[in-house]
Amino acid sequence: MGSSRRVNRGINMTHTSALLTDLYELTMMAGYLDQGKAGDTAVFDLYFRRNPYGGGYAVAAGLEDAIRIVLEMRFSGDDIRYLRSLRSPRGNQTFPDAFLDYLSRWRFGGEISAVPEGTVVFSHEPLMRVRGRVMECQLIESVLLCHINFQTLIATKAARIWEAARRAPVLEFGLRRAQGPDGAISAARAAMVGGADATSNVLGSANFDVPARGTHAHSWIQSFETELEAFRAYAALFPDECILLVDTYDTLKSGIPNAIQVGKEMRDAGHQLAGIRIDSGDLTFLSQRARRALDAAGLDYVKIVASNDLDEYIISDVLAQGGEIDIWGVGTRLVTGAGEAGGALGGVYKMAEYNGQPKIKISSNLEKMTTPGVKKIVRFYDTEGLMEAYALAEDSEDISSGEVLIIDPANPLRRTTMRSERRVELMVPVVAAGEPVYEFPSLEQIRDHRKRQLSELHESYKRLVNPHEYKVGLTQKLWNLKECMIAAVSMAD
Predict the structure, then answer these.
(1) Quick check: is 265 in a domain?
(2) 475 - beta bridge partners?
(3) Number of domains making up the chain
(4) Residue 166 in contact with residue 454, Cβ under 8 Å?
(5) What is the pTM of this model?
């Protein structure tokens, strides 16, 4: 089945997002139906194994987009005709008609719980729990991972950039370098979740009701006889939001002096030059010189914007060296998630229960071994109100008070007794019986939540190099279950 091919390739069809899945999800569904497992139930956890960028945390994102597409999924007539057209290498129809008939009536009817967007999360901490018939849980695996993996990666990158910029304004400038139009829109949203304050992407601005920001390109300057003429023309067109790009010819000898002259002319006419943008060269040195010249000219209100392949490391270095940047325009390395191996979060979707019985995946690689059973996440806060640790517990456990021993699954000898009074259960119900039961917050509310979450995370976890490792652990009861299941598998072998 893995080599299924389609016949009648010339037919023009219109397909729905129901086909936004991997082929093996459909082949497994067909197998479940054939084996009489259509009514069997399952629980799946969605989580990632390593914090992205070698960092100390991640920021959850993509939930609303993921849930909306799952609840809207229906197989259209064209979708079914396409699936019927698939053939094996021997020319046989890939999917049985009984399965295609089942798909034509399919809609998601299960339950989904999840961590709200903007929440600071950590490796092995489930971002989502899906419960329902095994066939429906299986079908939505790929689409959930597609949305959650990408947007969480980009939101985390944006948060790291925002923190590195010392929470100064960050502009998302990545449309032209994004992985296609869909990637550009998703990245714009995720960047806003994580820390960007505006986007250059006008469609993203319109879709998400967020500020659109931009300046002009070097080509604007080159289209005029002189740089000064170009600056004056732009200032006349946009007198209340004018940012001038000063590095087309010579930043110090031409760009900044001409911008200052236009800035003075604007001031005399009752307007203010909003800023200048530096897009190349030594940003620390040039910004220092620019700030000195602007202040000396009485233009201390003019902001300095920096761009040019920026990321959190460059921004941190520029500021550490005394750079005078007020606003950061970040494009390629933000929207592509640059810096993460393979450019992906690496989230996975693993079965935790089948027909009410806990399930485990065994691996010689401890990182890939799963934790069985239906679980909840409880976060502990220290006396200063900072995140201290999180525990995975069996869903029926009450750990709302008292001492709680947590055991690190990667190193069982590392055990911590939690006594913190403040404890928060992270996952909330989002979908029940196939219907939404969660009111999705606005993007601004998600951003506020992210700011609060990061303010509750100790600075040691935010370091760009060698961040502190957050405490994670299983409760004693959950650890005992895992040990027993590992032992049972070993004895069977």
Answers:
(1) yes
(2) 406
(3) 1
(4) no
(5) 0.95
